[in-house]
Amino acid sequence: MLATLSDRRQFPDEGWIFERKLDGVRVPVVREGGRLALLSRTGRPLDDTCPEIVAAPAAQSCGDFTVDGEIVAFTHGRTDVARLQQRMGLTRPRQDVEASGVAVTYYVFDLLRLEGQDPTRLPLRTRTSLPRRALAARSPLRLTPHRNAGGAELRDGIPRHPWFLSLRDDRKPREVVRERAVTSV
Question: Coiled coil where (predicted)?
Answer without folding.
Answer: none
